[in-house]
Amino acid sequence: MEHVSGVGMVNVDILYSGIERIPNEGEEIYSKGFDIQLGGGIPATMINLARLGVPTELCTFLGDDMFSNYAKAQLEHYNTSYHNIYNGNGMPLAITSIITTQKDRTFISYRNHFTLNKEDQDRIYDKLKGAKIADMQLGYLEVYKRLKEDGTILVFDVGWEDGMSLEKYSEYLKLADYFTPNQKEALEITKTKNLQDAADKLKEYFDQVIIKLDKNGCMLVEGDTTHIIPPLENIKAVDATGAGDAFLSGFIYGLYHDYDMKDAILFGNITGGLCVEGIGCLTRYVNETELLEIAEKHRKNIR
Description:
single chain, alpha/beta, 6-stranded parallel β-sheet, 4-stranded mixed β-sheet, 10 helices
């Protein structure tokens, strides 16, 4: 059966909510809310795709530590097929403490940096090959090149980082079939001042340029035509953590089932929009039936 594949480190989020301010050095503040969840990234997208009934294959890195064991239990709980590539003795995942106030979120993170050898890359390719679609991120370039040669559709996404540029991502952009930056990322990567100029720069790589507009939906540029695929109405935003990964799950669902581009983006707007109504990346979601019912109600708003 055709599937969607991805490789990425698991993130574990420790979530503190319901506080009025960030403590100063030497202070202790108690939160009203607390939770531990799997965080964002490709594993979150794979989990949400599995919730939508799409077969997935995830390659990731897990050790024998308490957070890795928690991640293993959660992946199994979400019925997400995964392959552990890690053979070391460390804690090969990212841990983030997220403090949410009424104004914004603050993060403190730990990430284990380890090196993959050619044998590891070969193992990853062997597990991901045969996919209809692969979710790309920075790293694993040789794996993506091999998947591209096999005919796999590649969807590239980035998170904000310093030094973003077309040059930095050029090898990935040349490989990818679709690229899904948000508006801040698109402007920074292209070094432009408005979204139309950013789209024109990205046309050098893509026939269909996609730029997420956050609470305003998503822009699709095809040739000289610009479409705005609107967001869901009456969203009660609580926490934007994981919204981009959730968008990808809906978007890839549309590609997987051969919907047209506007429908695929609409699905992404639905999954990404609803995600922000819950604390964390995986709390608020839809199943396949709910997704299709919501999409049917909103198609008339696409222009």
